[in-house]
Amino acid sequence: MDVLPDKTTLRHWLSAHRDRPRVLVPTMGALHRGHTSLFDRARTEAGRIGGEVIATIFVNPTQFAPHEDFDAYPRPLEADLALCRAHGVDAVFTPVAHEMYAPDRSITVSESRLSTTLCGASRPGHFDGVCTVVAKLFLLTQPALAVFGEKDFQQLAVIRRMVRDLDFPIGIIGAPTVREEDRLALSSRNVYLSSEERAQAPILQRALATTARGIASGDLATPETARVHFLAAFADATLARLDYFEIVDASTLEPLQSFGANEPRLLAAAFFGKTRLIDNVEVS
Amino acid sequence: MDVLPDKTTLRHWLSAHRDRPRVLVPTMGALHRGHTSLFDRARTEAGRIGGEVIATIFVNPTQFAPHEDFDAYPRPLEADLALCRAHGVDAVFTPVAHEMYAPDRSITVSESRLSTTLCGASRPGHFDGVCTVVAKLFLLTQPALAVFGEKDFQQLAVIRRMVRDLDFPIGIIGAPTVREEDRLALSSRNVYLSSEERAQAPILQRALATTARGIASGDLATPETARVHFLAAFADATLARLDYFEIVDASTLEPLQSFGANEPRLLAAAFFGKTRLIDNVEVS
User: Fold this and answer.
1) Catalytic residue positions of B, numbered
2) Residue B227 in 3-state DSSP?
3) Which of A84, A7, A64, A20 is nearest to A46 (CA)?
4) Alpha helices in B182-264 (DSSP H)
5) Where are the alpha helices (DSSP H) in chain A?
6) Which chain B residues have a beta carbon less than 8 Å from that of A143?
7) pLDDT of B28-54, one tens digit each?
8) What is the CATH number of domain B188-282?
9) Does domain A2-175 have CATH number 3.60.40.10?
10) Which of A5, A7, A23, A20 is nearest to A170 (CA)?
11) In this predicted complex, what is the ipTM?
12) Which of B131, B142, B166, B170 would you mutate first to test chain A, the one with the most A CBs within 10 A?
């Protein structure tokens, strides 16, 4: 596996491997089984197209708000590289911030519809940071395919929209959320939870899942009754403060007024202490 | 020469020509000798790299403000294609607006420093429209090089900035302004001028050129004396209303406070009746 610490080494690698298409997995490091499932999926896709897997590890400052955890975000680079190696990644691009951003940088890629609600409402500027850095990583690594986790469902929808609206010649693959035994979604932020918070955290997924089952069975016939059900189920998480719960169209992320032709997706975010967790489920 | 009316035919063409690098010339049509000089330059560059020349003709609605001349903008497609053919263009992409923009499009590429002054001050949103469409055309045509005219000097600087900040793997070539016998810069908008306005229009270039010569000779020792000189010289254009005159650093477009290490560029815009003309000169 090749470790590429800057744009120059990346460009040399691309030039030496120019005959083979690439499958990209962009990450912020602090890798866990959620990420390695993306590497595994990328490996499968790369096999299918005769290509190679390139991962990126970059804790992107522009997607953190000033009060958020950029400085504290975990950066276990050696362990991350070992996981990449063990899961068949061919090359890892690991730039530092000043390699990615000039001091007088002035270009932003922004999304104005899908990104204003849900996580975007409580994290202003976050998705501009995500779109801009993902556009840069796409242009730097020039992949045929890129794999993102469904765990960050709004991010996935925003990136699909960016690819569509800017005509990136890249296929986007959404990969299912990986969960702990108790169904808590894997996240680099789970390490911040106290043991009491960790014990209650799976209630977020459980409330989403029972609500989704109620919608699928017809017991919860309207978005409003589904919301009442979710809130009652989530009330068991006494240490948590709900940020949002929404039932949206899976591709436009617009709140559903009724269950009809649309494909519904249930998304929620909640603070356990200072730690903000997100999760989402489909209705099937 | 291949005419490619939509993304599907463009992709087929790219796929069939994938072994050869491309030199792109994006235009809004209404082609004149200014544009054909860009095709000629692209042809030379293509010869150098063993590549092909692709032009685009697209009157981009998002870079016109509501009160501007989008509907009236000339669209002489057959004459434009004949000029492309005569100047060695290999393929022309000629999409319609709904091919380029989904009704629910929501991604914008914006520039926040270079684009707020000069033309950007009187055309809010213009450079967002330019950046977004040029990013799309770059991603659709995937060129190795792209040629833009120095006539739109601020646009050229903004596009260089976009390429740098988003890491587009594309070289940008600025080509010199082509002028009429009386030194008026060629522009698709010159046809809007009355004969009286047309007679006065070259005063814009003349005032810029004499100011630049005064700076080069040292007679105009400060930006302020240079401004006084320009305004006096431009006063001869009795039918014109000056929009701006600025002496800026050629790469940052920041106004110069003195003539020192920077490379100065003189830029001006003026209305002749309803027609807004722009021009710029170097100091050499």
Assistant:
1) 35
2) helix
3) A20
4) 195-200, 202-217, 223-234
5) 7-16, 33-49, 77-86, 97-100, 119-122, 126-141, 153-166, 195-200, 202-217, 223-234
6) none
7) 999 999 999 999 999 999 999 999 999
8) 3.30.1300.10
9) no
10) A23
11) 0.95
12) B166
